[in-house]
Amino acid sequence: MSAVTGLDKVMRAFDMGDRVSIVHSDGLTGTIQALLLTNEGLQYQIRYWRDNIRTVEWVFADEICKLSK
Hints:
By secondary structure, the chain is mainly β. Helices cover 0% and strands 51% of the residues. The protein has a 5-stranded antiparallel beta sheet with strand order 4-3-2-1-5, with no helix packed on it.
């Protein structure tokens, strides 16, 4: 067992500007616009439009999936 927690998880990497779909949503897609390293881990700021309202929120890698180009 590793002394550092979380090393056994599969790491997903995203880059700025990547188009992603939001897991457990009704087909929402967004764009990564910022990265943040916190005590909880790496977070990604995504922006997307829902009901004609621009929305920005922070998510973890397991909450998004990269869209193929």
